[in-house]
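Handout, section B. The chain below has 714 residues.
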Amino acid sequence: MEELYQIRQKNLETIFHPKSIAIVGTNKVKGTVPHDILDSILKADFNGIVFPVSPRENSIKGIKAYKYVVDIPDEVDLAILVFPSSVNHMALEQCGQKGIKSVIIISAGYKEVGEAGLQKEKQLIEIARKYDMSFIGPNCLGVINTAPGTNLNASFAREMPEKGNIGFLSQSGALCTAVLDYARAKHIGFSKFISFGNKADISEIDLLYYLMNDEETKVILMYLEEVSDGKGLMKAARDVIEQSGKPILIIKSGRTDEGASAAASHTGSLTGKDEICDAAFEQAGIIRCDHLEEMFNKAIAFAYQPAPASEKVAIITNAGGPGVLTTDAAISRGLKLAKFSEETTQILKKALPATANINNPVDVIGDARSDRYMTAIQAAFNDPDVAGVFVILTPQSMTDIETIARDITEIAEGQTKPIYASFMGEKDVAIGIDLLQQHKIPHYILPESMCSAYQAVYHFNKTLKPKVHRLPEIDGIEGEKARKLMDEALSNGRSYIPEVETIEILQTYGLPVPRGKLATTPEEAVTVAEEIGYPVVLKVVSDDIIHKSEVKGVELNLGSADEVKEGWERIRKNVKSAMPEASITGLYVIRMIKGSEEIILGIKRDPSFGPVLLFGLGGIFVEVFRDVSFGVAPLSREEAIRMIEQTRAWEILKGLRGRTPRDKDSIVDALLRLSRLAEDFPEIEELDINPLFVLDQGNGSVIGDARMIVNTNK
């Protein structure tokens, strides 16, 4: 894998900085992809040699054309394949014979159309491996590199975008054209613009590593439709952030999953694909966005302005209402209003009219011209408590919009603090907005968007950027014993592992199991109860019963031998009435736990991200309240703590309204041990611990119930 990674990175360098390009399958028909790819390369003033390859043409656009790529007498760095999918494999084979290592396959008709297309795609991969080639695509828009020494538009986008420091990756080619049009209107520039399509060979992970080392890229944006290698994506994101400090913003489509079926465990029914994706992105430091406007609102804040040193902002406005709206938006997003120094207050008092508000937010009054704005902005920049400045403008009859915008761009030059603007309106403020955008001042139609962008940059630099994923050492694990118990549990082909056997496995990983034993007769149950001490709990044990409470298969708080016998009989009758065909192994007798909080812990195996841990408020209504959080294994201690503190359950555990604080450390320890168990045993598809009884601080916790679902084919 390391060798393949190195080959791809080397070949990617040639894709983005080729000295010669062969357009394989081009033609003279304007308005077709084969023609427009060649046209785009020529219009962008590519700084290299172009070789059209066309079986039917002798020349295209005045350039000599070759019948086959192997006929080109000179060396070729990059081949762009635009033949139909039915013949692309032959063209790729010839590229390999020619010694070309870097390829972009534009053509559609592969796995996106079904099984026949998938087989064609596999054929391309086999050819690429044979010749140590790497390719982007198929089914993609192409690649753009705005670097002046290259000027590469190897795509069928209408125009070359402006040069900038944003790298954009997209799985959707159609979305790329919309993004380019949106960005052009707002003067947003790109360093690299990449449509990677079906990612049959080069994936978003390879591209992330490439952009990590790309000096022209400061911010990385991505649109994803599927996460095929969640673990790899998380590792790549962590590496990019830790090694380069570049933020990664991703839109992942497919938030809903209408076809999801209910799972047998609580964890399975609570864990949706989108919640897992959210948790994985957060752990990896990825900023997830809901839509393109949000993504670019945050991207320009990262790309254009210095990072804020704190959450304290100054708001400068010419209207009281927008100032209040911006204040509300800032506070609701965790920002704070800076408290001006006496010096700042005196400057504002002297320069502004008596009717102006010189406190934060500063209202320079509706008739303010540029001089008032500039005095207030400069005073805010100079104030030691201010980390960032928000400028709000509403178009009054006397407002010199163009001058104010131009002066903002000048005052922002050389500042170490960020400045964001919101010129509210549309037609009247258009000239000012255009000036701000041309000069890379982040502009926002709504104050809420401005505050969200500032918060994203501050949070990334304060929390996500410095975060390092360190896995803790975990002692007290009996791996060989656990393996033996798991093999025994799997030996009869069951997918559901009952509580007693599940708890035995959990005990080998140091999880806090209850005192108790399996009893097969009422008399044996009494003996166990007297060994462990009253009061006790009785629970039915059956391969046929997953949810014991639904068949009234649990008896609580039994305080004597007679109560144990009576409880045994009630369970027997209840189960026989609810599930007459169920085979009862016996009853599990455990010590009754009192004076605790009930939480749920769980494991769910995701096809992309692997084992996922769940934490939340436990009990029989866990699906109703859905107070849960998720983390992708392996967990660090900090991530386990984050899972707990993300939920409302944390307020209860830390001692709500005078209640005794519960033992959070024991929950953290249990999560870390479950994380290790999930990594070590890929057979585990789902696992519930519900409830985990959490005792007072310092007294630990105890498993109240556990069940496991396994994949018998692993």
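Note. Residues 663 and 697 are 4 Å apart (CA to CA). Compare this with the example in section A.
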